[in-house]
Amino acid sequence: MTPLARPWLWSWLAAAAAFSLTLGLTSGRGASELAYAALSFGAFAAIVGLGQMLVITLGPGNVDLSIPATMTLAATLALKGMSSDPGTAFMGLAIALAVGVGAGAANYALIFLLRLPPIIATLAASLIYQSLAIWSNRGLRIKPPEGLADFATGRVLGLPNVAWVGLLLAVAVWVVLERSIWGRWLLATGQNLRVARLAGVPVERVRATTYVAVAVFASLAGYLLASFSGGAALNMGQEYLLMSIAVVVIGGTSIAGGNSNVPGVWGAALFMFLVVSMLNSYGAGAGVRNVLTGAIIISIVIAASTRRART
Amino acid sequence: MSLLTRHRIILPVVSLALLLAATFYMQPRAMSYFGLNLLFNLAVPIALATIAQMMIIMVNDIDLSLGAFVSLSACVTATFLNDTPGIGLLILLALILSYALMGAVIHALDLPAIVVTLGMSFVWGGLALFILPSPGGASPGWLRTLMTVKPPFAPMAVVAAIVIAAVTHLLIMRSGIGTVLRGVGGNARSVARAGWSVLKLKALAYGLAGLFGVLAGMALVGLATSADANIALRYTLLSIAGVILGGGEFTGGKVSPTGAVIGALTLTLAASFLSFLRLSPDWQIGAQGAILILVLTARLVFRQKGAEA
Fold first, then answer.
1. pLDDT of B237-289, one tens digit each?
2. Which of A78, A100, A202, B22 could form a disulfide with A92 if both were Cys (CB 3.0 to 4.6 A apart)?
3. How far apart are CA A14 and CA B194, in angstroms?
4. Do A134 and B285 lie within an 8 Å CB cutoff?
5. Minimal Cα–Cα distance from B106 to chain A, Å?
6. Is the ipTM reported for this complex over the cut 0.90?
């Protein structure tokens, strides 16, 4: 396998290209600020992307559309629980993660017990989570406790803290996928569910843990995003629905399942932020920006797929 | 088999009837020409969008760009079609052709439809913003007249739904080409072996989806009298839900146009029903989700009975 055939390379190349094109305009000024911003904002996309990647790895038809609603619900309940009191950050985290576990278990229950297609099950469930968030939020904007807000916007060794969280999670997911039995089970299930079941893989247990994992990732991203941006908002998760799917696919994970790609998710998350800032710095309006973003996503997918076909 | 196919349409019909009965029970005054018109007014564009989504699901793909595409069609209708009908018509035709082209590219390069349509949703949304940066535009007079016409016996929305269901039923379920198109979803390879060009068939299915997407956008402008770039974004998920509610399956070319229209009507009615319930607005969205789950659970029960019989 030549280095060029590694699917994750494309997202990193694209991110690097967007980065240098943006800097080309300012003739190199602001490079570290741009990288810092990309790492901060990319971290949220990477965290939800890692979760979505696990689900998509389960095979065709598996996708979680409830990510935005889970993010919002986890953030809303966590901030409400903390009610800006100092020293409650870990309690808030526990609330958010509990919401994630609950939402994931509910999603899987709908899929398994009612035999609903995952797209429909997570879509219907997300409507209910959204209602719960609206009901518990009531338009209030509760600030995160000061220490937590400082952590979410702070940095260690020059890297944003949220990026550290995202990187640690990526390493953890990579190790689990490549080195643990569960990861092998997940890949086997995604490659061929029937064969995996006949080979003795506890397929339903793998699916259940995967759907819980994606919801936990989403709730963690929601918790961090709310702390980062000074409070939960009802539409805070909105853009992460398409984003989570886009970073997975641009990152080189096979949409047909059974083949995931951790480094690619981070590359794609950086790219999605950098391409918007590149178009912004070239003065493109919202319309042009969207058209170009879409065109770039499609051309990357085409480039990656023709590359794959040749090898 | 005939039992199962008959079951497939019974469930959507029963759920719509039950919901309608419950609505009439809650609000007897809705049981009138005017009441029905209010209840189903917004169903026409949703039904058209659901049919468009069904064309894509029929060939085993899924379209995540439909909401953005309907919004774009609405923006074109409210601006170009109103100001310079000739150019407007050309743009709408070009949109339909680009949908067909998208289908051809997806098939020729063997790309995942979910990703390509995801990317295209940015493109459609961007173009819509470009045409109409802020909400505005106006509906062409003839379109407004068409959408608000008051036919005898049944309100416009009901008549339109019946016409849409009948036309698409003839096209997809009764005609030769419709059968071949469903065959692409069932077994593309055997369709190809039988001498058909799957490339052309996929382009046709996507083109049909584009046509109904454009019609949905036009119908929406006729009702709303103006447009904005985000007017129909929620149609993406609504249309998927409508197809599945109507007894369609994600794979195997198992779709039902009549069911899809009924599914769209059910979704529209669910919203009206919930407002009659005087449910707190906080819970309206959640209750829609609950209704969706309920109907699909009923489908499971039906399917098991069908398997036993």
1. 889 888 988 888 877 778 889 999 999 999 888 878 887 777 777 787 788 78
2. A78
3. 42
4. yes
5. 10
6. no
